[in-house]
Amino acid sequence: MSDTQISNAIDRIKQDVAANDVLLFMKGTPNFPQCGFSGQVVKILGFLETPYKSVNVLEDPEIREGVKQYANWPTVPQLYVKGEFVGGCDIVREMFQSGELVGLLKSAGVPVKDAQQS
Amino acid sequence: MPMAASEIERMIKTALPDAEVFITDLAGDGDHYRAQVISEAFRGKSRIQQHQMVYAALGGQVGGVLHALALETAPPETA
């Protein structure tokens, strides 16, 4: 894989991150996650009923390599909210459990089900 | 390709000498670990920065040799 291919992939990643309020790079799809860590993030976003776009990195080796460089983060999944990298599975789960994730999504103006208010 | 828990601990402690490191082999296959890392170096850093420091300590092994390393990081509690 050439540097040009990676830098083209990073350009596509930047566009996707800018164009989607909630964006998840994952292995597999929300219906068929192909890694337990990606599956955990899908479950959390599903529980919160938050709409998001997902990108299956297994379908695109250049994106798979590009997201690692883009975020300086070696693994997938990666969650982005309003253009900001939020974290991988561990951080997303910790933030979900502490309520920070709901706060972050709300302050981003993204639809989210707040279990504490319903 | 598996990596020994002792090697993970050694690499983290080389980069973060004060770190307390607890490693659990989640699947018993030498490929899925959980690492809990406590270090003063994390104080004032975001979670993302804390995890990036551990990934850097492991020199690019995470995502390659190590399929997955579940991470929990924190500075020591100040009593």
Can you describe this structure?
The complex is a heterodimer of chains A (118) and B (79). With 118 residues, chain A is of the alpha+beta class. Helix content of chain A is 49%, strand content 14%. The longest helix of chain A is centred in the N-terminal third of the chain and has 17 residues. Chain B is of the alpha+beta class and 79 residues long. The termini of chain B are far apart. The chains are: A alpha+beta (118), B alpha+beta (79). Chains A and B meet through strand 4 and helix 4 of A and helix 2 and strand 3 of B.
Q: What is the gist of this entry?
A:
Chain A has helices at 3-19, 36-47, 61-71, 89-98, 100-107, and strands at residues 22-26, 53-56, 78-81, 84-87. Chain A is of the alpha+beta class and 118 residues long. In chain B, 28% of the residues lie in helices and 25% in strands.
Major sheet summary line of chain B: 3 strands, mixed
Helix-and-strand structural type of chain B: alpha+beta
**CATH-scheme architecture of chain A:** 3-Layer(aba) Sandwich
Helical residues, percent of chain A: 40-55%
List keywords for this structure.
heterodimer; A: 118 residues; alpha+beta; Glutaredoxin; four-stranded mixed sheet; 49% helix; B: 79 residues; three-stranded mixed sheet; 28% helix
Write the SSE topology.
The complex is a heterodimer of chains A (118) and B (79).
Chain A: H1 3-19, E1 22-26, H2 36-47, E2 53-56, H3 61-71, E3 78-81, E4 84-87, H4 89-98, H5 100-107
Parallel strand pairs in A: 1-2
Antiparallel strand pairs in A: 1-3, 3-4
Chain B: H1 5-15, E1 20-25, E2 32-38, H2 47-57, E3 68-74
Parallel strand pairs in B: 2-3
Antiparallel strand pairs in B: 1-2
